[in-house]
Design a protein that fits this description.
By secondary structure, the protein is an alpha/beta fold. 35% of the residues lie in helices and 18% in strands. It contains 14 helices and 14 strands. Strands 2-3-1-4-5-6 form a six-stranded mixed sheet, sandwiched between helices. Strands 8-7-9-10 form a four-stranded parallel sheet, with helices on both faces. Helix 12 links the parallel strand 13 and strand 14. The radius of gyration is 24 Å and the shape is globular. The two termini are 30 Å apart.
Length: 395
């Protein structure tokens, strides 16, 4: 629990043309050699990520992307991969080489920044290579930029301070339960142990709920579903029960109706996405017919078992509800299609492995295409007729 998952870090992504000094700036900000530095064009072939603690704002993730305008043989594929990172960027840094200010590449990226509402900093690098007259001319053209010399270590402190300012403005992520319950509350986490649970470990949503409870002074009790009845009888007062979505129907029958009950996935739907959109999107299930195309997307990749929630359980329950076979499509990781017009519904996982910006952009893309989107937990609650109860805590 001491290591913050990358999904919970602000993603600071560095863009710019090849050989503009992106890797050097990232290395200097981190204080260590993470990205390979070379004068050779196309040295950074794939995005390089490194987490760090940026005081006083906390954990962040720096990502050094492959250069724009890459003329090497694999340049086009690398640039495409770089562009894809925009959808998960919290804060962008665009870097110019002062001797190679290519407005065309910058304007293309700036348009994407605006499209996805991404704050960014414009950095002019290698100022030690020009005379004072040229430097003053560029400053007149780009008065709000940050001017840096990696070689002479000039301007890096200013860049660091500007990043902190932006993060403090953008840092609006909700807690999981800390704002839903008062200090000193009692919460029971129900953790069913099945083949999907990694041996000897809790899965990430469960760990993050425990940590959020600790951060907000909420007393947390962790039990299996087989011990829940005893726990409820032994505890004098319970403010909330949180369970795995797959076990919600069973837990709903065990927990008295006067005790609020929700799921890990519902909590992540609110924190990582937009619970209102997910609750609205789940209504589309009522309109599905056999043969309709449905996209089920996860933010992580793992082996499929007979209990897999996204590839086995939800499809089976959906088709049982609809009364026939659906045309189901599956995506995993950061692979999310731009062409959504053919789908009647998108069902997203809890999003514990990706940052909120990525989930929000996926929701926005669906809204732009007029395609309904919901979430694993919301869909499972709907299909088990427990949605009214699982969403009550959010009121």
């Amino acid at each position: 629990m001491n290591s913050t998952p990358n999904a919970n870090r602000k993603h600071i992504v560095i863009y710019g043309k090849t050989n503009s000094g992106k890797s050097s700036i990232m290395n200097n900000l981190l204080g260590q050699e993470v990205s390979l530095v070379s004068d050779k064009e196309g040295t950074t072939t794939d995005p390089v990520s490194k987490g760090m603690e940026l005081n006083p704002v906390g954990p962040v993730l720096f990502i050094d992307t492959a250069g724009l305008g890459d003329t090497t043989s694999l340049g086009e594929a690398r640039v495409k991969k770089t562009i894809e990172y925009i959808k998960r960027t919290d804060i962008g840094i665009y870097i110019f080489d002062i001797e190679d200010i290519d407005i065309k590449n910058f304007k293309e990226i700036e348009l994407e920044f605006k499209k996805y509402n991404i704050p960014y900093l414009l950095v002019i690098n290698k100022i030690d290579k020009v005379d004072k007259e040229k430097l003053n001319y560029v400053k007149e053209e780009f008065p709000d930029s940050i001017y840096i010399s990696n070689k002479e270590k000039v301007g890096l402190a200013e860049l660091n301070n500007k990043l902190i300012e932006l993060i403090e403005i953008e840092d609006d992520e909700l807690p999981l339960i800390g704002d839903l319950l008062p200090y000193g509350s009692n919460v029971i986490l129900v953790v069913p142990i099945d083949s999907e649970a990694p041996k000897g470990r809790l899965i990430l949503p469960q760990v993050q709920c425990i940590r959020d409870a600790l951060d907000h002074g909420i007393k947390c009790y962790v039990v299996r579903d087989t011990e829940l009845k005893d726990a409820l009888e032994e505890m004098k007062h319970v403010d909330l029960v949180i369970t795995d979505s797959q076990a919600f129907k069973k837990i709903d029958e065990l927990v008295p109706k006067d005790i609020p009950l929700t799921s890990f996935s519902m909590l992540f739907a609110r924190q990582k996405g937009d619970i209102t959109e997910f609750l609205e999107g789940v209504k589309r299930i009522r309109e599905l017919n056999p043969g309709d195309k449905v996209l089920i997307t996860e933010s992580c990749s793992h082996n499929t078992s007979h209990e897999d929630i996204g590839k086995v359980k939800i499809p089976k329950m959906l088709e049982n509800y609809v009364g026939g076979k659906l045309d189901l499509h599956f995506k995993a990781g950061h692979d999310f299609p731009d062409d959504l017009d053919e789908y009647k519904l998108v069902i997203h996982c809890g999003g514990c492995m990706i940052n909120r910006k990525a989930v929000i952009n996926r929701i926005k893309l669906c809204k732009d295409k007029n395609v309904a989107i919901s979430n694993y937990g919301v869909v499972l609650s709907f299909l088990t007729n427990t949605l009214d109860r699982s969403k009550m805590i959010f009121k």
